[in-house]
Amino acid sequence: MNVQRKQKKHITHVLVLILAFALLTAAPVYAVGDAVGANIPLTGSWVEIGGNHFYYIGGVRQTGWMNIGARRVFLNPEAGGAMATGVISTTSHGAHEFGLDGFWIRQINNFVWRESGGGHFLYIYGIRHTGWLQSGGRRIFLIPEANGALATGIISTTTHGVHEFTADGFWIRQIHNARWASGYEFFYIGGARHTGWLQAAGRRIFFIPEAASTLATGVVSTAAHGVHEFTADGFWLRQIHNSGWNNGFFYVYGARHTGWLRSGGNRLYLHPSTNGAVSTGTVVLTNGETHVFDANGNWIRRHVPTTTPVPTPPPNQGTFPQSGITLPDRRLTDAERDIWIAEYWAMGGPFSFELEVIQLVNQARLSVGLAYLEMDITLMMAARFYSQIMANLDTDLGHNEGPYRIAGATHGASREVVRAFGGDLRWNGGNAAAGRDTPQGLVGRWMNSPGHRAYILSPEHRFIGVGSHAGGRWNAFQYMFLSNQASN
To answer: Residues 476, 482, 484, CA angle at the centre, nearest 5°?
Structure first.
């Protein structure tokens, strides 16, 4: 009997070993990212949901610790049973670190949050942690470019893409459709300009709601966000808690501020030579640039010289005066175009009529919270030339008429005129008008037309060119180019 018992016990041990070996070799092997390791019990199955991996037995999602072969994984109860990866912190199981494949690495017994300079940092064994972390079943991110600061709001990183987080740091979503535009002046998410705070490359930046979501630089004063100072390339420096206007001067911590200031969306320049008085009219800045401001100090444009060297006309070719039907019914040669440009400047450059139209357009934009448009001299010349074509040549009113016409193109001729004057074609629209009018009447007509009004009040536009020409078939003709980037 004892021999039989020993034989039976030996056979049982052999069967157990055979069964164990069979389970180890027959169980399916899962690829990293689909599940973890091998030797998964045959009674259960892994399911991937929303990028997380869950384990089900009999249709019930499992939570807690689980052995797979000789290694452990953790199905986080606070994350609905999602398999833990990376560093996680739980209320009932403490803090642990796992590999990207979900296998347990170590328990973390020294896990401390600290606040420094307004940011929150996690220290593991005295070292700041960076990257992803699960806390309370939810994902958070400690930005490597910000030395491990907790991510909040929208962040843009070079290695992890663009993500959105709650104010307390919990992950909301990844943003796949995000881009910079207009020389890093605007940031678009899903086709809409982002306003407010953003973390980029580990540093905070701000897009001013009152200034059509323009990137903040210098000192910025807003109604909802207070007063802050930024670098010239838009990175946040500090919040200013003691500031305000007094008798026409802006004070920061008791001292008069000088230089650029954004106040309520308006761009002002407080000139050092006048001890911080608001600049108006045409002003030379300390860096030598000349800028133009309205009577209230709002920036209008950077000043463009009104004279330029006049090239010598080629032999046997005359000039093309502002009035009279003298333009050839064909495209100009480069030499003829240069003569026309020389005459443009010899006549004084932009007309007062054209400049007043720009001023009225900018006033209309300012009234609805949009940024001023900057005058682009290439667009100014192209608009004057196209107005002369339309006024003097026997063409219909439109954007694709005359010798620069392109068959089938809505704005073909006007676009080709911009090209002829050296523009890079990155303009977004144009308004035309026929007949004599005052600047007020012209802008009024455009603003009373839904299509023309939409062009004027588009937040996409940043540059403007206006041209006018008297005489010809229409008695007078005016054209306005609007662009989202400088012409060249």
So the answer is: 170
Tokens of 209: 């709601």
- How far is residue 78 from each of residues 99, 111, 280, 406, measured CA to CA in Å? 19, 18, 61, 64
Tell me the helix, strand and coil percentages in the chain, rounded to 5. Answer: 25, 40, 40
- Lookup: tokens for 154: 């929208």
Q: How wide is the angle at C-alpha 179 spanned by C-alphas 178 and 181, nearest 5°?
A: 145
Per-residue DSSP letters for 374-416?
A: EE-HHHHHHHHHHHHHHHHSS--SSSS-GGG--TT-TTHHHHH
What's the token pair of residue 447? 């603003």
> pTM, whole model, 2 decimals?
0.50
Structure token digits, residue 87: 């560093």
- In this predicted structure, which of 1-10, 30-39, 388-397 has the lowest mean pLDDT? 30-39
Q: Rounded to an integer, what distance in angstroms lies between the CA atom of residue 46 and that of residue 448?
A: 63
Q: Give the pLDDT of residue 402.
A: 60
Q: Which two tokens stand for residue 67?
A: 């052995």
Which string of DSSP letters, residue by residue, matches 283-304? EE-TTS-EEEE-TT--EEEE--
Q: How far is Cα 197 from Cα 209, in angstroms, rounded to an integer?
A: 10
H or E element that contains 174? strand 171-175
Contact 202, 149 (CB under 8 A): yes
**Residue range 140-152: average pLDDT?**
89
Q: Give the Å distances, CA to CA, from 243 to 221, 264, 274, 430.
A: 9, 14, 19, 42
- How far, in Å, CA of 485 to CA of 284, rounded? 24
Q: Match 């991110």 to its residue by tokens.
A: 141
